[in-house]
Specification:
Blueprint (H helix, E strand, L loop, with lengths): L11 H12 L4 E5 L5 H13 L4 E5 L20 H12 L16 E6 L5 H14 L4 E5 L4 H14 L7 E6 L13 H8 L4 H14 L5 E4 L10 H12 L1
Helix pairs in contact: 2-3, 3-4, 4-5, 7-8
Protein backbone atom coordinates (compact mmCIF):
# COMPACT_ATOMS: atom_id res chain seq x y z
CA UNK A 1 0.00 0.00 0.00
CA UNK A 2 1.09 3.59 -0.63
CA UNK A 3 1.11 5.82 2.47
CA UNK A 4 -2.09 4.34 3.98
CA UNK A 5 -4.10 6.81 6.00
CA UNK A 6 -2.29 9.66 4.19
CA UNK A 7 0.46 9.27 6.78
CA UNK A 8 4.21 8.82 6.62
CA UNK A 9 5.15 5.24 5.82
CA UNK A 10 8.04 3.44 4.16
CA UNK A 11 7.81 4.12 0.43
CA UNK A 12 5.84 1.30 -1.16
CA UNK A 13 8.55 0.49 -3.73
CA UNK A 14 11.19 0.12 -1.01
CA UNK A 15 8.84 -1.99 1.09
CA UNK A 16 8.08 -4.20 -1.92
CA UNK A 17 11.79 -4.69 -2.56
CA UNK A 18 12.33 -5.66 1.10
CA UNK A 19 9.50 -8.23 0.89
CA UNK A 20 10.87 -9.68 -2.35
CA UNK A 21 14.41 -9.92 -0.97
CA UNK A 22 13.30 -11.58 2.27
CA UNK A 23 10.62 -13.94 0.94
CA UNK A 24 11.43 -14.54 -2.71
CA UNK A 25 7.81 -13.74 -3.52
CA UNK A 26 6.66 -11.74 -6.50
CA UNK A 27 5.38 -8.35 -5.37
CA UNK A 28 3.38 -5.35 -6.51
CA UNK A 29 3.82 -1.78 -5.30
CA UNK A 30 1.44 1.15 -5.51
CA UNK A 31 2.32 4.62 -6.79
CA UNK A 32 0.00 7.59 -6.11
CA UNK A 33 0.04 10.60 -8.40
CA UNK A 34 -1.20 12.82 -5.57
CA UNK A 35 2.32 13.33 -4.21
CA UNK A 36 4.64 13.42 -7.23
CA UNK A 37 5.23 15.33 -10.41
CA UNK A 38 6.34 13.61 -13.63
CA UNK A 39 10.05 13.87 -12.84
CA UNK A 40 9.70 12.35 -9.38
CA UNK A 41 7.34 9.59 -10.51
CA UNK A 42 9.51 8.45 -13.41
CA UNK A 43 12.68 8.67 -11.31
CA UNK A 44 11.08 6.44 -8.67
CA UNK A 45 9.99 3.99 -11.37
CA UNK A 46 13.54 3.83 -12.74
CA UNK A 47 14.79 3.10 -9.23
CA UNK A 48 12.17 0.37 -8.80
CA UNK A 49 13.25 -1.22 -12.08
CA UNK A 50 16.88 -1.05 -10.96
CA UNK A 51 15.93 -2.97 -7.80
CA UNK A 52 14.31 -5.70 -9.89
CA UNK A 53 10.69 -4.74 -9.27
CA UNK A 54 8.32 -5.32 -12.17
CA UNK A 55 4.73 -4.75 -11.03
CA UNK A 56 3.18 -1.40 -10.20
CA UNK A 57 -0.37 -0.13 -9.87
CA UNK A 58 -1.10 3.55 -10.55
CA UNK A 59 -3.59 5.32 -8.27
CA UNK A 60 -4.54 8.88 -7.52
CA UNK A 61 -4.36 8.50 -3.75
CA UNK A 62 -6.91 9.48 -1.11
CA UNK A 63 -7.78 13.16 -1.06
CA UNK A 64 -6.31 15.18 1.77
CA UNK A 65 -8.78 16.34 4.40
CA UNK A 66 -9.14 20.01 5.35
CA UNK A 67 -7.01 19.26 8.41
CA UNK A 68 -4.31 17.68 6.22
CA UNK A 69 -4.28 20.70 3.90
CA UNK A 70 -3.11 22.89 6.75
CA UNK A 71 0.30 21.18 6.56
CA UNK A 72 0.57 19.48 3.16
CA UNK A 73 -0.52 20.15 -0.42
CA UNK A 74 -1.37 17.66 -3.21
CA UNK A 75 0.55 17.57 -6.48
CA UNK A 76 -1.71 17.49 -9.54
CA UNK A 77 0.92 17.18 -12.28
CA UNK A 78 -0.22 13.83 -13.65
CA UNK A 79 -3.34 11.67 -13.52
CA UNK A 80 -3.31 7.88 -12.99
CA UNK A 81 -4.30 7.24 -16.63
CA UNK A 82 -1.44 9.46 -17.77
CA UNK A 83 0.92 7.61 -15.44
CA UNK A 84 -0.11 4.30 -17.01
CA UNK A 85 0.68 5.73 -20.44
CA UNK A 86 3.95 7.13 -19.08
CA UNK A 87 5.06 3.71 -17.83
CA UNK A 88 4.40 2.21 -21.26
CA UNK A 89 6.52 4.95 -22.83
CA UNK A 90 9.32 4.09 -20.40
CA UNK A 91 9.01 0.47 -21.50
CA UNK A 92 9.70 1.78 -25.00
CA UNK A 93 12.77 3.61 -23.72
CA UNK A 94 11.35 7.14 -23.60
CA UNK A 95 10.87 9.55 -20.69
CA UNK A 96 7.99 12.02 -20.36
CA UNK A 97 9.86 14.61 -22.47
CA UNK A 98 10.37 12.14 -25.27
CA UNK A 99 14.05 11.78 -24.43
CA UNK A 100 15.75 8.40 -24.65
CA UNK A 101 16.42 6.45 -21.49
CA UNK A 102 19.72 4.59 -21.21
CA UNK A 103 17.72 1.38 -21.29
CA UNK A 104 13.96 0.69 -21.41
CA UNK A 105 12.09 -0.55 -18.37
CA UNK A 106 10.04 -3.76 -18.34
CA UNK A 107 7.32 -2.75 -15.91
CA UNK A 108 3.87 -4.35 -15.77
CA UNK A 109 1.51 -1.49 -14.93
CA UNK A 110 -2.01 -1.79 -13.60
CA UNK A 111 -4.79 0.55 -12.52
CA UNK A 112 -7.86 0.50 -10.31
CA UNK A 113 -11.62 0.27 -10.80
CA UNK A 114 -13.99 1.63 -8.16
CA UNK A 115 -17.49 0.22 -8.60
CA UNK A 116 -18.68 2.42 -5.76
CA UNK A 117 -18.85 5.14 -8.42
CA UNK A 118 -21.50 5.49 -11.11
CA UNK A 119 -21.18 2.51 -13.46
CA UNK A 120 -21.17 4.39 -16.78
CA UNK A 121 -18.56 6.85 -15.52
CA UNK A 122 -16.35 4.03 -14.32
CA UNK A 123 -16.81 2.17 -17.59
CA UNK A 124 -15.56 5.16 -19.59
CA UNK A 125 -12.61 5.66 -17.25
CA UNK A 126 -11.70 1.97 -17.45
CA UNK A 127 -11.71 2.18 -21.26
CA UNK A 128 -9.30 5.13 -21.12
CA UNK A 129 -6.98 3.14 -18.88
CA UNK A 130 -7.13 0.18 -21.26
CA UNK A 131 -6.24 2.45 -24.17
CA UNK A 132 -3.40 3.95 -22.10
CA UNK A 133 -1.91 0.47 -21.74
CA UNK A 134 -3.10 -0.86 -18.38
CA UNK A 135 -2.20 -4.55 -18.11
CA UNK A 136 -4.36 -5.47 -15.13
CA UNK A 137 -6.95 -3.95 -12.81
CA UNK A 138 -7.52 -4.05 -9.07
CA UNK A 139 -11.10 -3.58 -7.87
CA UNK A 140 -11.93 -1.69 -4.71
CA UNK A 141 -13.58 -3.82 -2.03
CA UNK A 142 -16.67 -5.77 -3.16
CA UNK A 143 -18.96 -7.98 -1.12
CA UNK A 144 -21.07 -9.59 -3.86
CA UNK A 145 -20.69 -10.32 -7.56
CA UNK A 146 -23.79 -8.50 -8.82
CA UNK A 147 -22.14 -5.10 -9.20
CA UNK A 148 -19.15 -6.60 -10.99
CA UNK A 149 -21.36 -8.59 -13.37
CA UNK A 150 -23.33 -5.43 -14.18
CA UNK A 151 -20.10 -3.54 -14.90
CA UNK A 152 -18.61 -6.25 -17.13
CA UNK A 153 -21.85 -6.66 -19.08
CA UNK A 154 -22.10 -2.89 -19.56
CA UNK A 155 -18.49 -2.65 -20.74
CA UNK A 156 -19.06 -5.34 -23.36
CA UNK A 157 -22.29 -3.73 -24.59
CA UNK A 158 -20.66 -0.30 -24.82
CA UNK A 159 -17.44 -1.27 -26.59
CA UNK A 160 -18.45 -4.42 -28.41
CA UNK A 161 -15.87 -6.57 -26.70
CA UNK A 162 -15.29 -8.07 -23.29
CA UNK A 163 -12.80 -6.59 -20.87
CA UNK A 164 -10.03 -9.11 -21.49
CA UNK A 165 -7.42 -7.62 -19.14
CA UNK A 166 -7.15 -9.47 -15.80
CA UNK A 167 -9.40 -7.96 -13.12
CA UNK A 168 -8.55 -8.81 -9.51
CA UNK A 169 -11.53 -8.64 -7.15
CA UNK A 170 -10.85 -7.01 -3.78
CA UNK A 171 -12.42 -8.89 -0.88
CA UNK A 172 -12.04 -7.09 2.42
CA UNK A 173 -11.87 -8.72 5.82
CA UNK A 174 -14.10 -6.69 8.12
CA UNK A 175 -14.15 -6.02 11.83
CA UNK A 176 -16.68 -3.99 13.79
CA UNK A 177 -14.32 -1.00 13.96
CA UNK A 178 -12.42 -1.23 10.66
CA UNK A 179 -12.67 1.25 7.81
CA UNK A 180 -14.04 0.31 4.42
CA UNK A 181 -14.00 2.10 1.06
CA UNK A 182 -17.22 0.80 -0.45
CA UNK A 183 -20.81 -0.12 0.35
CA UNK A 184 -21.13 -2.86 2.94
CA UNK A 185 -24.29 -4.99 2.65
CA UNK A 186 -26.65 -4.81 5.60
CA UNK A 187 -26.27 -8.53 6.37
CA UNK A 188 -22.53 -8.14 6.97
CA UNK A 189 -23.00 -5.31 9.46
CA UNK A 190 -25.76 -7.31 11.17
CA UNK A 191 -23.53 -10.39 11.45
CA UNK A 192 -20.64 -8.32 12.83
CA UNK A 193 -22.94 -6.77 15.43
CA UNK A 194 -24.05 -10.26 16.47
CA UNK A 195 -20.42 -11.19 17.08
CA UNK A 196 -19.66 -13.19 13.95
CA UNK A 197 -15.95 -13.11 13.06
CA UNK A 198 -15.01 -10.97 10.09
CA UNK A 199 -12.69 -13.73 8.88
CA UNK A 200 -15.66 -16.13 8.67
CA UNK A 201 -17.69 -13.60 6.67
CA UNK A 202 -14.77 -13.05 4.29
CA UNK A 203 -14.49 -16.79 3.65
CA UNK A 204 -18.20 -16.87 2.77
CA UNK A 205 -17.80 -13.96 0.34
CA UNK A 206 -14.67 -15.52 -1.13
CA UNK A 207 -16.51 -18.78 -1.78
CA UNK A 208 -19.31 -16.84 -3.51
CA UNK A 209 -16.88 -15.14 -5.91
CA UNK A 210 -15.07 -18.36 -6.73
CA UNK A 211 -18.39 -20.14 -7.20
CA UNK A 212 -19.46 -17.49 -9.73
CA UNK A 213 -16.24 -17.98 -11.68
CA UNK A 214 -14.26 -14.99 -10.39
CA UNK A 215 -10.98 -16.56 -9.37
CA UNK A 216 -8.58 -13.60 -9.67
CA UNK A 217 -8.85 -12.25 -6.14
CA UNK A 218 -6.79 -10.30 -3.64
CA UNK A 219 -7.56 -9.96 0.05
CA UNK A 220 -7.79 -6.58 1.76
CA UNK A 221 -6.98 -6.97 5.46
CA UNK A 222 -8.93 -4.99 8.07
CA UNK A 223 -8.01 -1.30 7.79
CA UNK A 224 -7.75 0.55 11.08
CA UNK A 225 -7.77 4.30 11.63
CA UNK A 226 -4.40 5.78 10.82
CA UNK A 227 -3.84 3.24 8.04
CA UNK A 228 -2.69 0.20 10.02
CA UNK A 229 -3.61 -3.17 8.49
CA UNK A 230 -4.36 -6.40 10.34
CA UNK A 231 -2.49 -8.80 8.06
CA UNK A 232 -2.89 -11.67 10.50
CA UNK A 233 -6.65 -11.61 9.88
CA UNK A 234 -6.03 -12.00 6.15
CA UNK A 235 -3.75 -14.95 6.89
CA UNK A 236 -6.55 -16.58 8.91
CA UNK A 237 -8.88 -16.23 5.91
CA UNK A 238 -6.35 -17.87 3.59
CA UNK A 239 -5.89 -20.77 5.98
CA UNK A 240 -9.65 -21.25 6.49
CA UNK A 241 -10.36 -21.13 2.75
CA UNK A 242 -7.69 -23.74 2.01
CA UNK A 243 -9.28 -26.02 4.59
Amino acid sequence: AYNPGRSTRVNSAFAAHWIKENTGRDVLFTLATRDMNKVAAQSLLLGAALMGLQNVVAVQGDRFTDKDLATVQPVTDIRPTELVSSVNSMNQGLDFKGGKLRSPTSLCVGATIDLGHEIQRETRLTRKKVEAGAQFFLLQALFDTQRLEEFLDGYERTYGEALSIPVFCGIQVMTSDSLVFGDVPRWINDDLEKGRAGEDIAVQVLKQFVGQGFKSIYLIPPIMRGGRRDYQAAQHVLEAFKE
